[in-house]
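Before a colleague's protein record goes any further, I have to sign it off. My question to you is simply how this chain folds and whether the tokens agree. I do not need a full report, just your reasoning and any doubts. This is what I was given:
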Amino acid sequence: MTRVDALRKEFTRETTTARRHLERLPTEQFDWRPHPKSSTAGQLASHIVDCIRWVEPIFGADELDYDQRPMKPSAIASPADLLRCFDDELSRAMQAMQNTPDIHADQSWRLKMRGKVWFEKSREDAFRDMTLHHIIHHRGQFTVYLRLLNVAVPGSYGPTADER
């Protein structure tokens, strides 16, 4: 198994888990927020989808220049739209990874904005930081939203109290 194959396998596992969580968002709670300073459930769920969008520029180009290609938040209006966008972005991400030779995992990737390099790291590290870990982090937040909404929380790495 190549390194990119291993990354794709891990990404598949984590996005499958993320989708199971996103599927639980009730339509009537899409605009709910736990606190005035918090994102709505729909905004947080949409951000998880947006994290998947980073895969294509990370594996498909040597850099992402925000001035040339701004990564604006997705305009997602409902849970059904959310899952459709999730599936579309995941398909594009998997295709980008499928087309990436293993040697590219170590190659440098840059994020630029306002004419400056914000960071430069290997594609693998950029993928882990900007997508994989980001999705896991926000999925954790989302589980708290589900719990506060009294929605059964699916397991991530084992069964939850709702599944026992």
